[in-house]
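haha ok so turns out i had the wrong file open the whole time. this is the CORRECT one, sorry everyone. sequence first:
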Amino acid sequence: MSQTSALSPLAGAAKASAIALYAKPSPGYAAKRAAAEALLRRAAALGAVTQANSLGVEDMVLTDMVRRLQLPISVFVLETGRLHTETLALLERTQALEGIEVQVFRPKQEAVIQFIRTQGQDAIYNSVAQRKHCCDIRKMEPLSRALAGKKGWITGLRREQSNARAEVPQVDESEQASKGLTKFNPLADWTQGDVWHYVLENHVDYNPLHDQFYPSIGCAPCTRPVTVGEDFRSGRWWWEDETAKECGLHVKKSTSEAVPVQHAKHNEETPA
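then structure:
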């Protein structure tokens, strides 16, 4: 496990785990869990349904539910080529789990090489457009392959995660007409405390970066720990305006683009 980042407001404090800090279920936890499991069964009944696992805690909870319920739902991971060492180790452990099929989708190497050659290794910090281009190559194109031939997919989106996700529905049929896809968000109404309580009571494996104040974990150059008072996704693309902070996986077409703000580069040892 890597050292707690100096950016964390609690660096040097007692090394309390995320479970110890956050595992406090809401009063409606039992009903929420039952509803989430029922929605997973509903999703499985469609056939050709898969779960997107980012290897963040919400997705690990869902993968655990799928395994426990023995549902015919595959799991896929987008291995962007820029994931943290801790995330890659968790991927290996998840692939080794019995009773679940985990598929790994990677970006096309020639596209990555061309992007770096023409835009530079630090292009993601230059503009929102260039950062999103990187996300298109490393996430969106592999996602299209992961969802090819599927009728539905399952995500760990929660309304509490950010303002942009405040109205996430449990069942999203907005892509039915265009792509023939239904998106299921079984944890949409779960709190952070609900998620970590599930981890505690079911002994779910999770990314140790969560113990270092990374509530949301993406590519290494694009993720930092959060500080007290920041929302769950403030550590993602922290140099950009709040309205730009999505990679495209869960965003409908937008007509505006945020303007990047000045920043100090993070993770200098892992250039974009």
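The first helix runs from residue 18 to 22.
again sry for the mixup
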